[in-house]
Amino acid sequence: MRFDLLMIVIGLLLLVAMTLTLLFGREYSRHGYGTILSNIKECPSITA
Questions:
Q1: Among 7, 8, 29, 39, which is disulfide-ready with 33 (CB 3.0 to 4.6 Å)?
Q2: pLDDT, tens digit, for every residue of 11-20?
């Protein structure tokens, strides 16, 4: 396999991976990408 063809295939795979991440990243994310975290508790503010 020639190096040029390999680089084209790798580029296309990266393009597909980035597209799928943007389309489905919110639904299947493990770290809250694009979601509003509702379990964050507000800390009481300290006023001096």
A1: 29
A2: 999 999 999 8
